[in-house]
Amino acid sequence: MRPSGRATDALRTIQIDTNVTMHAEGSVMIRCGNTHVLCAASVEENVPPFMRKSGLGWVTAEYGMLPRATTTRNRREATAGKQSGRTQEIQRLIGRSLRAGVDRVALGERQITVDCDVIQADGGTRCAAITGGWIAMRLAVNKLLAAGVIKNDPITSHVAAVSCGIWGGVPVLDLDYAEDSQAGTDANFVMTDGAGLIEVQGSAEGATFSRDEMNKLFDLAEKGVAELVAAQKAAVA
Predict the structure, then answer these.
(1) 57 is in an annotated binding site
(2) The domain at 14-236 falls in which architecture?
(3) 68 marked as part of a ligand binding site
(4) Any idea where the domains of the chain sit in the sequence?
């Protein structure tokens, strides 16, 4: 029995609230069980220096965790004067993932920055940030289209992410912290709505895992991402 009582192939309860801030072009609060992430997409009519005069747009992301998002208070990274390696790795992952679902020619020379702030963490924060970040980006692009700023929709596919792992010797979907902290294998799958893989991050703790177990995790991820994409579609309908 999983600590949450869920079936091995069950996601945590998903709740998505859109347009939760008044200034961002697109915003969403996504709750995956007890993991809550605020995602806000901002549009700027410029691109980073390395993209200028390329005719291409850019999508990037920033990620942060509030001090009491976890069981004990974490020091704000701003007070340390630098971001941790973990934060940098996660926000680069979010940016890469969202760019995979965008036609940057159609976006034009403008940048969308998706800020992902973890309000409460219970495992899977990067996956929730990617899934919610796509919704925030979709809402921001909808405003550009409605205003006639861009003519063609630059979003080519949904992008969502979910964790899977081997907990208690059994492959399970959507790890919460109780499982993640004890899992023998932990993997994050980032995929499109067509089940195309964007990125897979997987590692074993202690014992190795087999090709057969990897296939089972992939099957669980496909199911989970399909359900997350359905939630995305309902949120932006």
Answers:
(1) no
(2) 2-Layer Sandwich (3.30)
(3) no
(4) 14-236
